């Protein structure tokens, strides 16, 4: 896949699968933009991604934070969402309403809001209108 100069927003791109995606984007000449809720995770990821990589923090449960992210990032060609903690990290005995709310706030509500505020905008699609 040719990603030369493609801007790829990877929400949850500072560890695990998301970081792997960001590395693949960088290796293929794209511009990975990694996002996490923790600035130290963003800094650590950027240190290994090369000079074209960018990074930001965002609270996926806060529409204003997502709107700010969309404004700062600008046009993207691809959006990858891997953010959120796994419920398996919480033992069933510790599965509280708060843990469930946090999980769904990131994995479902945050994902829908992220897609709404940062949809991929292809220059090709804009030309065809």
How would you explain this protein's 3D organization?
With 129 residues, the chain is α/β, with parallel strands linked by helices. Helices cover 47% and strands 15% of the residues. It has helices spanning 16-27, 39-49, 63-73, 97-117, 123-127; strands at residues 7-11, 31-36, 54-57, 78-81. It has a four-stranded parallel β-sheet with strand order 3-2-1-4, covered by helices on one side. The two termini are 26 Å apart. The model is unreliable at 122-129 (pLDDT under 50).
Head-to-tail CA distance between termini = 26 Å
Structure class: alpha/beta
Mean pLDDT: 80
Low-confidence residue ranges: 122-129
The count of helical stretches stands at 5
What form results from the Cα inertia axes? Answer: globular
Enumerate the strands of the largest sheet in spatial order, edge to edge or round the barrel: 3-2-1-4
Report strand %: 5-15%
Classify the helix fraction into a percent range: 40-55%
Order of helices and strands: EHEHEHEHH
How many strand units?
A: 4
Rg value: 15 Å
Task: Summarize the biggest pleated sheet.
Answer: 4 strands, parallel
Helix and strand arrangement:
Elements lengths: L6 E5 L4 H12 L3 E6 L2 H11 L4 E4 L5 H11 L4 E4 L15 H21 L5 H5 L2
Parallel strand pairs: 1-2, 1-4, 2-3
Short description:
This protein is an alpha/beta fold and 129 residues long. The protein is built from five helices and four strands. It has helices spanning 16-27, 39-49, 63-73, 97-117, 123-127, and strands spanning 7-11, 31-36, 54-57, 78-81.
């Amino acid at each position: 896949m040719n990603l030369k100069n493609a801007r790829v927003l990877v929400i949850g791109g500072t560890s695990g699968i998301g970081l792997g995606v960001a590395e693949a984007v960088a290796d293929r000449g794209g511009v990975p933009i990694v996002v996490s809720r923790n600035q130290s995770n963003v800094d650590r990821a950027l240190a290994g991604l090369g000079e074209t990589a960018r990074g930001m923090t965002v609270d996926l449960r806060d529409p204003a934070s997502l709107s700010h992210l969309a404004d700062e990032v600008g046009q993207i060609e691809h959006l990858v969402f891997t953010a959120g903690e796994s419920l398996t990290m919480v033992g069933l005995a510790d599965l509280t309403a708060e843990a469930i709310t946090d999980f769904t706030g990131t994995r479902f509500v945050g994902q829908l809001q992220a897609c709404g505020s940062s949809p991929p905008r292809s220059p090709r699609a804009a030309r065809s209108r």
